[in-house]
Design goal:
The structure holds two protein chains of two kinds. Chain A is mainly β. In chain A, 0% of the residues lie in helices and 49% in strands. Classes of the chains: A mainly beta, B mainly beta.
Chain lengths: 115, 112
């Protein structure tokens, strides 16, 4: 399968714990995005990488959140000191980089539940 | 502020009939729009798009209409099939193309 993959698919944690999610984009895609989706809402942009450079961050990305893409391939999203409000679906997407807009391909998401 | 809005959280349609999903936007800088479809336990998948230089784009059973003066777009599915039952999101990229702004989604149920 050559689509975007995310691991784990589900994560249940206790408030205050740290969690880390992984995203593997489509191999030739140099753009990678993280979104968060809460129940009944559309996905909300969190951050964006072009290769290994993090170029855009939403104000939703508090200082407890950190994202990396160390070699310009897979990416990780870490949430420190989780809070119940962090419970959501975390979606990763990737796309090619070109002048024209390119479709973003989404992974299946990681569902986080903070107890 | 919600720059992209889908005011109908759900829509129920009989198989074979037309489904019309609506989307409104407030940001006049948006010049490209997309519709994504999402099944449970899967990520959104791209369905159809439209550039602001057009007012209609058709792909098989799916047609998107854009009314720039009203800042409104709609997705028509004809004929609707039970497999079309999913949540549909409209979205618009910022000018740099690195961030999508999504509407809240409309859950479509197509009854056999």
């Amino acid at each position: 399968d050559t689509g975007v993959s995310q691991n784990p698919r589900h994560k249940i944690t206790k408030r205050g714990q740290n969690v880390t999610f992984r995203c593997d984009p489509i191999s030739e895609h140099n753009r990678l995005y993280w979104y968060r989706q809460t129940l009944g809402q559309g996905p909300e942009f969190l951050t964006y990488f072009q290769n290994e450079a993090q170029l855009e961050k939403s104000r939703l990305l508090s200082d407890r959140f950190s994202a990396e893409r160390p070699k310009g391939s897979f990416s990780t999203l870490e949430i420190q000191r989780t809070e119940q409000g962090d419970s959501a679906m975390y979606l990763c997407a990737s796309s090619l980089d070109s002048v024209a807009y390119n479709e973003q391909f989404f992974g299946p998401g990681t569902r986080l539940t903070v107890l | 502020d919600q720059q992209v809005k889908q005011n109908s959280p759900s829509l129920s349609v009989q198989e074979g009939r037309i489904s019309i999903l609506n989307c409104d936007y407030t940001n006049s800088m948006f010049d490209y729009f997309l519709w994504y479809k999402k099944y449970p336990a899967e990520g959104p998948t791209f369905l159809i798009s439209i550039s602001s230089i057009k007012d209609k784009n058709e792909d098989g059973r799916f047609t998107v209409f854009l009314n720039k003066s009203a800042k409104h777009l709609s997705l028509h599915i004809v004929p609707s099939q039970p497999g079309d039952s999913a949540v549909y999101f409209c979205a618009a990229p910022n000018n740099a193309g690195n961030m999508l702004t999504f509407g809240g989604g409309t859950r479509l149920m197509v009854k056999p």
